[in-house]
Write a structure and sequence with these properties.
The protein is an all-alpha fold. The chain has one domain. It is built from 7 helices and no strands. The two termini are 35 Å apart.
């Protein structure tokens, strides 16, 4: 297979076959949605509950648990982005040592804890965008490419668009040609979106 020579393919991707790079980009973008839902839900719920209980002693433990959770999410996101980069992304969170009070002060006073919180909130809209674009583009492209194999099974309708519904040889070939034309556009779009998402994660988590 042809090796990728595009400069935008970072780290280990630069030496991977093109289909493997496209699969890596797709996987990275699709996984952003469930991860974004998880991080956003935990961060918002924890912060809201901690703020609501701030007048009681229960608010502080909830806030600490939330910050510890977003730290873990940040480490997971660094692993995910580092997998695509082929280069590990190191965090700057303070080490938690000493007494319970010293650890509490370290978590609350560490700017990295709050950057991790911002990242947990941002991952949801970014994940929704990445998932939507990747799934829509690849579903459309592969749908056109494979249409001759399954279009014959669709119900017929006299008031439809021939390009989308006709099973004739001419329209079948045209759909395949459209799919081939969309293939590089889809690959480049997902590569650019994955690179942008990775850069955002890197800027927030370093």
């Amino acid at each position: 297979m042809t090796e990728i020579s595009i400069d935008r393919a970072p780290g280990r991707l630069a030496s991977m076959p093109r289909p493997a790079v496209m699969a890596a980009d797709f996987t990275y973008l699709v996984l952003g949605l469930p991860l974004g839902i998880l991080t956003f839900t935990v961060a918002v719920t924890g912060l809201a509950l901690g703020a609501g209980l701030a007048i009681t002693l229960a608010g502080l433990p909830v806030l600490l648990a939330t910050l510890l959770a977003v730290r873990a999410f940040a480490a997971l996101e660094r692993t995910r982005a580092g997998w695509l980069l082929g280069v590990p992304i190191r965090g700057r969170e303070r080490r938690l040592t000493g007494s319970l009070w010293e650890r509490t002060r370290a978590i609350l006073g560490d700017p990295a804890s709050w950057r991790d919180t911002v990242c947990s909130l941002v991952l949801l809209p970014v994940g929704v965008a990445g998932f939507t674009v990747a799934v829509t583009l690849w579903a459309t492209t592969l749908g056109f490419l494979t249409s001759p194999a399954w279009y014959w099974a669709l119900p017929s309708d006299d008031e439809t668009i021939p390009l989308l519904d006709s099973t004739s040889l001419g329209y079948s070939v045209l759909r395949v040609l459209i799919g081939l034309a969309l293939l590089p556009t889809t690959a480049v779009a997902c590569r650019a979106l994955a690179a942008g998402t990775r850069r955002l994660a890197r800027s927030l988590l370093r």
